[in-house]
Specification:
The protein has 300 residues and is α/β, with parallel strands linked by helices. The chain folds into 2 domains: 205 residues, Formyl transferase, N-terminal domain (Rossmann fold), CATH 3.40.50; 79 residues, Methionyl-tRNA Fmet Formyltransferase, Chain A, domain 2 (Roll). The protein is built from 7 helices and 12 strands. The strands form 2 sheets. Strands 3-4-2-1-5-6-7-8 form an 8-stranded mixed β-sheet. It has a 4-stranded antiparallel β-sheet with strand order 9-10-12-11. The radius of gyration is 22 Å and the shape is elongated. The N and C termini lie far apart (64 Å).
Length: 300
């Protein structure tokens, strides 16, 4: 069985708070990061089957900055099965492939390069909220607690057997970066604790209950609509958690469709008198309580 001191990890990630928090936590814990792979192109689109390094520089994305700080390579490609990609990743001699918000399914030709295990850290309690935007949909669904799952990669996204899970209670009014940081710390801890239990036989894994599975796609404009039957707390937390999408939040109030831009507060009481068209903040009544938010514009 591997141990944290000698295990080499190849990290498949993205430049978001959840992914980069996991990566930084692994580095701080002195887990050997053999390298990082992110998906995409750099600058002008390169020719097919090209793998190229990402050079750190002031103001660049977080993954490249972590590479400079901790001394591992960051590679980028849009071709996950090309001979150059497979040869370069094989040369890194990683024991574990760890995916955290990587936007593509890792093909079998690539996964077979891992010495011990191929894992994913997903920010929900699987099998609920499979898909590319689980944090968005958990807040839209009004979940009281969120969660993090460490599971094996499989042919189907987010469907592999589970190695560890943890529920996470969050306070009101957290934004995307704060949520990603808190969940990322939990995910990194799950992974670090799991390393000594990893084997190629998957004897410590638990199959997901497919009858309880749910899948959600990337959100569309209509998914930002606020339902006045929600509580004001639910609407407030949903707006705070998803404002990095920079989308307006439509809501019906007083016979109008109001487009909200930023949530500034809420009350749990039911003594609001309806929508108030103030210059800076609107008070929007919900089934329970009142939401206070800055307007984007109003349409009839």
């Amino acid at each position: 069985m591997p141990d944290t001191a000698t295990t080499r990890v190849l990290f498949f990630g993205a430049n978001n708070a959840f992914s980069t928090t996991v990566l930084r936590a692994l580095c701080v814990a002195n887990i050997q990061v053999a390298g990082v792979l992110r998906y995409g192109f750099s600058g002008a689109q390169p020719p097919p089957r090209t793998l190229f390094p990402v050079q750190p520089s002031p103001g660049r994305a977080v993954l490249a900055g972590l590479a400079e700080e901790f001394g591992f390579p960051v590679l980028c490609t849009a071709d996950l099965t090309g001979s150059a990609t497979l040869a370069r990743l094989s040369a890194l001699q990683a024991d574990i492939f760890l995916s955290v918000c990587f936007p593509r399914r890792l093909p079998a030709q690539l996964l077979q390069l891992a010495g011990t295990a191929c894992l994913n850290i997903h920010p929900s309690l699987l099998p609920a909220y499979r898909g590319p935007a689980p944090i968005f949909w958990q807040f839209r669904g009004g979940e009281g607690d969120l969660g993090v799952t460490l599971h094996a990669l499989s042919d189907e996204l987010d469907a592999g057997p589970v190695l560890a899970q943890h529920s996470v209670a969050l306070s009101d009014g957290l934004h995307h970066g704060e949520i990603g940081w808190r969940l990322g710390r939990v995910g990194a801890d799950l992974f670090e604790r799991a390393i000594p239990r990893l084997t190629t036989s998957r004897q410590n894994y638990t199959a997901q209950d497919t009858s309880a599975a749910s899948y959600y796609p990337l959100p569309k404009a209509e998914d930002f609509v606020l339902d006045s039957q929600w509580s004001s707390r639910r609407a407030y937390n949903f707006m705070c958690a998803t404002d990095h999408y920079c989308r307006p939040y439509p809501v019906q109030a007083g016979g109008l469709t109001l487009l909200l831009e930023r949530a500034v507060g809420f009350t749990d009481t039911d003594d609001g008198e309806g929508s108030e068209h103030g210059r800076d903040v609107l008070a929007i009544p919900f089934r329970r309580g009142t939401l206070y938010a800055e307007p984007a514009r109003t349409v009839s």
